[in-house]
Amino acid sequence: MNKRGHVLNAALLAVGLGVMVRPVPEVETLAVVAELFVPIVLGALFPDVDTAFGTHRKTLHNLPVLAIFLAYPIYFGNLQWVWVGVLSHYLLDVLGSKRGIALFYPLWRREFGFPFGVPVRSRWSPVVTLVVTGLELAFGAAVIHWLPAPMAEGALTLLGVR
Ligand SMILES: [Zn+2]
Question: How far is the CA of 147 from the centre of ligand 1 (A)?
């Protein structure tokens, strides 16, 4: 996926998750959306830094990098929500392109993707971006609304989301 697709995905994800976290329309909902927007968009842009440093779709497109971003809110109490953007970037690259990403790099250089992905420059790329974003928001809604409340609260608190 290209940068435009990743930013569109991250922006829609931030707004959707913000509204889910604070569903009653009020000033606080806008504050939550603003709180999520920049970290998620920055996280969504981060993996493609490996186009300049390292090997694209390998160096910064793998599970150890995601684990580092997950660890920051837990151990240092900062960079909350950035991991959502990184994870979303990975999902979009895996589901929305033919090439895939090296999930287990540097241990395994193989790139994993799905056969129904579309080329990055395809006219279907924006459609795939919106479909993947919809699936991500549906998953977010399931976590927020369907998990037993103590489990959902505990997981979100652990990850620095609440
Ligand atoms: Zn990428």
Answer: 30
